[in-house]
Structure formats: structure tokens, C-alpha cells
Amino acid sequence: MTDDTSGRVRLETDGPLARIVLDRPHKRNALNTHMLTELDDRLATVADSAEVRVVVVQAEGSVFCAGADTAEFAGLASETIRGRWTRLGQRVFGALADLPQTTVAALHGSAFGGGLELALHCDFRVAAPQIGLGLPEATLGTTPGWSGVSRVLGIAGPAAARMLALTGRTFSAQDALRLGIVDVIALTAESGVQQLVDDLLHTTPIAQSILKQALAHHSAPAVAGLLDSLAGAYLAEAGETIPTTTFRRSHS
Fold first, then answer.
1. pTM for the complete prediction?
2. Distance between CA atoms of 135 and 168, rounded to whole angstroms?
3. What is the pLDDT along the chain (252 residues), one digit of tens a residue?
4. What is the Cα 143 distance to its own chain's centre?
5. Where in the chain are the domains?
6. Are 18 and 46 in contact (CB under 8 A)?
7. DSSP conformation letters of 54-96
8. Which end of the chain lies in a sparser environment, N or C, as judged by fewer CB atoms within 10 Å?
9. Please, are residues 140 and 91 in contact by the beta-carbon 8 Å criterion?
């Protein structure tokens, strides 16, 4: 196992599994420029790894992430915030969404605002039952700035996006599961993450990569086109095709 413990965002790798850990618990892991920059660096390292197949995003302390550290930009003009802070977060979160590996947010604690937006840029969200989730920006006179609304639209549709963004409510893990923005609730987030990671690592790397690319395109024709153009050639070249007899045996 390797462990980069510098700064406020750690990267721990153990074979095919990498963990990106927010480590600012005394500030409820609120994201400032330094943390976003470190997160960007960790994502770049993971993206270049041929060994890592699954990336878990987690946090120290009792809260996953309270959102943006508003103290950093207090007093700044709105144009400055939009021009620097918003674009930085969008770029870094976009890098998370674009990772070739499958990503899992381990929500052992609550996630609000930018913290929930961070989790929404992962492929899966696993939550402990006692947590709260929300996009409270509208109650503070602003709007989610790191593509949170568009991520909810893509993941769970307009009804969920309206409920989260327009009300600013805090939702329980169970309500978030019903809305479609949480995939798994487990007694502990770690136990749910471990089961999901085991399942993901049971698949083959190239198949998983192709499917992730296909699922990033929401229209059915785009998905079918990607699968038709990539899957056969890539899987055959890698020797990862499953014999028909094996499939029939496992489903008989």
C-alpha cells in the first residue's frame, strides 16, 4: 500500500483500489482552494494509474463534507467568485467524473452543498442510514455552483432536481434513496462500499471502462453506438470475452 499524507487530501492505494480521503475534519471537510487543488492533483495521479480500477472518495471525521468554505471568499465580488472559485470547482469535479476508473462516494457522514456536488460526480453513492444530504444554496441566496443541479438531472431526473434545489431541504439517506441520488444504504458506509467494491472488481477492466463511457451518454442510441463500436474489438483483443457455454451454465 502507498500513502500520500501531505496536505488536506490524502491518496491511499492498495492494488486495484484507491482511496481519496478528505482530511480537514475540524472544518467539517469544507472545501477551500487548497483542498480543491490537492484533490485535482490526486485525481491526476489516479487517472494515470494502470493498476487502479476503483476509486473511493471518503472523509475523516463525522461529516463527509459541509460544502464550500465560504470564509475563503467572504467579501469578494461576485464576479471574482464566479470567475475563479466556481470554475476551479467545476474543473476539478469534472476531472472526477471523467476518471476512467469507477468511483464510489462513501457517505459515512452528511454532505451539503459542494460536498453533495462532489459525491454526485462519483458513479455510486453509498450512505450510512443516519446521514443528511442537501443542496441548501437557495436558502442562502445563491445557487449550486459546481454542476450539482445538472448532475442530479442526469442521475435522478427533473423531479429530484426540483426537490433538492428549489426547497433547500435536508433529506435523510432513505429519502435520498427514494429520490435516486443514493444507490446503497448500509449499516455502515464502509460495509456497503466494501461489498460494492468487491462486485466491481469481479468484473473485467476493459468491459467496465467501455460500460462507463457508454453510460456517460444518456441517450439510448449513443449507448448502443458506443457498445457496438468499442466492445467487440476491445474485449476480443484483451481476451476478456465470456464463452457462451459459460454464460449458459451460470444461468441454467
1. 0.86
2. 5
3. 555 544 699 999 999 999 999 999 999 999 999 999 999 999 999 999 999 999 999 999 999 999 988 787 776 666 666 667 789 999 999 999 999 999 999 999 999 999 999 999 999 999 999 999 999 999 988 889 999 999 999 999 999 999 999 999 999 999 999 999 999 999 999 999 999 999 999 998 888 888 888 887 755 555 555 555 555 555 555 555 544 333 333 333
4. 20
5. 2-201, 205-250
6. yes
7. EEEEEESSS-SB--B-GGGGTT--HHHIIIIIIHHHHHHHHHH
8. C
9. no
* Cα(31)–Cα(72) distance, integer angstroms: 9
Q: Which three cell numbers stand for residue 114?
A: 459542494
Name the phi and psi angles at 247, rounded to 5. Answer: -65, -45
Matching residue, cell 443528511: 132
